[in-house]
Design goal:
- The complex is a heterotrimer of chains A (about 350), B (about 290) and C (about 350).
- Chain A has about 350 residues and is α+β, with helices and mostly antiparallel strands.
- Chain A contains ten helices and 20 strands.
- In chain A, helix 3 packs across helix 4 and helix 6 runs parallel beside helix 7.
- The relative contact order of chain A is 0.11.
- Chain B has about 290 residues and is mainly α.
- The N and C termini of chain B lie far apart (about 45 Å).
- The longest helix of chain B is centred in the middle third of the chain and has 37 residues.
- The chains are: A alpha+beta (about 350), B mainly alpha (about 290), C mainly alpha (about 350).
Chain lengths: ~350, ~290, ~350
Amino acid sequence: MLSIKDLSVSFRTRKGEVNAVRGVSFEVAKGETLGIVGESGSGKSVTSYALMRILDAGGRIKTGDVTYDGIDLRRAAEREMQDIRGREISMIFQNPRAALNPIRRVGHQIEDVLIQHAQATRQDAREKAIQALEAVKIRDAEARYHAYPFELSGGMCQRVVIAIALACNPRLLVADEPTTGLDITTQKAVMDLVRDLTRDRGMSSILITHDLGLAAQYCDRIVVMNAGRIEDQGSPARIYRQPATLFAAGFMGEMNRIPARVTGSGVETPFGTMAITPPAAKDIVLCLRPEAIRLGEGALAIGPARVRDAAFFGTHCRAHLVPEAAPDLTLVAHLPPDSVPSEGTVLTLAADTDAISAFAVE
Amino acid sequence: MAEISMPSARVEKAGGTLRHIAYVLRTNPVTMIAFAMFAFFLACGVFGPALAPYDPLASNAAIALQPPSAAHWFGTDNLGRDVFSRVIVATRLDLMISVAAVALSFLAGSALGAVAGYWGGWLDAVLNRLLDTIMAFPLFVLAMGIVAALGNTIENIIYATAIINVPFYARLVRAEVNIRRNAGFALAAKLSGNSDLRVLALHIFPNALPPMMVQVSLNLGWAILNAAGLSFIGLGVRPPTPEWGIMVAEGANFIVSGEWWLALFPGLWLMLAVFTFNLLGDGLRDMVDPRKRT
Amino acid sequence: MPSARVKMVLGRVAQAVPVAVGVVVISFLLTRALPGDPAAYFAGPAADEASIAQIREARGLDKPLIQQFVIYVGELLRGELGTSISTGQSVAADLARRLPASLELTLTALVISCAVALPLGILAATRPGSWVDHLCRVLVTAGVSLPTFFTGIVLIYVFYYLLGLAPSPLGRLDFIYLPPERVSGFYLVDAAIAGDWGTWLGALKQLILPAVTLALFTLAPIARMTRAAMLSALSSDFIRTARAAGLTRRKVLYGYALRNALLPVVTTLGMVFSFTLGANVLVEKVFAWPGIGSYAVEALVVSDYAAVQGFVLAMALLFVVLNLVIDIAYALIDPRIGLT
């Protein structure tokens, strides 16, 4: 449904040109929920602004193709884009109260969008606006129609924002950090609402967030972005287990980095030589998830390691250990929860080959 | 317990401030021009009588109402006096009036605002009521009323201009002191045994100075306009004293018969002086708080 | 049960009362702060000992200050502002007679000012860096430096003496016309009511130059605030939401951004009025406009203190009323105000 190929966006600033997005490509299928995750400044929001062509004044799309349902969004006229925005592709933002016009009643703000896209006439706009409010599960919708944003709670404001976005039944919803500024309970309520509505209407959606847990819970596939580039994309599980880049590996969760060197005979680690297929480089880093370290024997024999600290975490025991073979490394391991080793205990650790990812040192 | 001073930190800060000033000046040529113009007016004010080619009070009916020429750059007025000399000499009087007025209102306003901002309570309430009442008058009209009540002299022009400017400083200082009253450094100074007054005068107030400098510069421009306006309608300065406002007033009578130079040059000079102080204020604002740039 | 709106309006009016009281107190102090013998000033320069003593007793100037204040307030409530030495009539009557001239001038100037400053500010905000933006910035910086009396004189020189376009700056109406029958006191309104278009045009021609002079003065702060407020509104989150929802550029600009930007502009108007009422005095002197400003200037020259103090008080109360109107207008536009 949405296809982005090799998108690059730059901004003209006082200090020169800043490339916020560099050669990003991904697709969103019909009915799919795609997550774009990354830290602040990774370019995830800019990507979505670019596809809707609502970049700030100094921004422009340098290269790339953005195709929605066969329409070239990059070359479409502004008139056409205005028709598409709100009716085909909608967007919701963070800080819901700030996203609403403070001196206009929320009901009227919904009506503006309905009338703009010819989804209602002046006569039935009010009725349809109230229906839109009911669709986002706002109780007492008829009374809330007359409310100003400052009279509503943050969660209620976000529901109104969603109501505005979905009023004209778009087919793609872009949610840019929709849970920022909301408390945990409201976050869940809002995300569940978005998920239910998009699923009921067969909509595709893009969820932009820095919260990996949120993405993993609500998205079918995710795209990991860093410094304007895509580090990896796929199902959360696949990226977690077989990350494509070092950044993606570190972003998806805690991991141990073991330095190693590629020689003629294999990969030399502080714990012995391993026979794994290394990346094409001399110095590499082996990534090992904490839960992949276990007690006893394995392909990667870490050997004896001294416990520095250990704590009970319910499903596991989280321990920091210093291996005798590499005393300048500190490993994080998730050990079985039934016994919490005391400080100074020496345990024998190992890991299996398929739990290890190897990357060239950048 | 004695105050702990950190001289090296202060010197470092001074060096950094100078570098910042130099940076702003370099990237903002307009501010540099403003500083240059300010220096020029200051020189005119200080050395005025020495720079004037003719005696500003010497009248000579024979050469009255002559247009600008090589001998008289700004022409001569209806009494044959050299307009250029009068304009230059007037700089001293106008600058003196506005500097005195602004200095007075700065001192009075800062003191009042600092006290109200630091101790709050009924002092604050009374001050606010007083300021609100002053601001309830159209300020130029209030100045007219004050001068009419106190008497038509230059000193009273200064007092009147000072009074109507007090609210700006009082409000500004009150806000700045209020913000810093509970700041870390103020509390620390109190804890090391300084009395409230010392903390206010030596610690909080110096920190509030930079935004006040911006206000002072902008106010100087406005005070000059005010003083010139008052003398334009006949208050304060009396002929034959050269002063920009009164020269424009006298020159206005001759505009309709085409002798434009009597009014135009004093007016332009006045405009330039006000413009200089406004630009200076904007430049200072950029130095002090670039976020407030409009 | 009065609605919240009515309660809020009444609340604002109530807040203005102590301010008005303060104004009256200061006015009173000004009349009593005269150096020397207040009675002598009220009696006039030609009075002799006997009439001065008479005035002193009649006006109660020998009584304690508090009592004098009460008498003063009593007089005010009766509309009694004293007698003008130069016209021999009551100051209140003089002011009432000349007020429409000042109002016509000020209102026309404000209309011209807003008509130029608002679009200029909007254009400058929507096209940052363009020539409009630079023009706006230059105008704003220069505008606050221009002495009103000087611009008036320059305009007279250019348009009357050099170009011959403007009529002689000698007041509201050239002597070949007769003033229209007084209904409102505004010549433009009264001439239109009487259908006398010749006089209407004559009055307009006399009004243009002084109104433009005054307008130039108020242009700068209004344009500056409009530009700043529009820039701020246009960069807010709710504008992004509106654009993302596909609203047209016009709707976003005027319906959403401008309405929000007008709020700080309305607040600025209060400050603008303060300067305008003061600049009015200067413009009236330059153009010999027979309003209350020139009345006060003439009174100052002949030391007619009752007239001057009456003028100051009248202007201050007018200003309090204007600020009240602005306050209420703001509270009516912004639904977030007035709920406490």
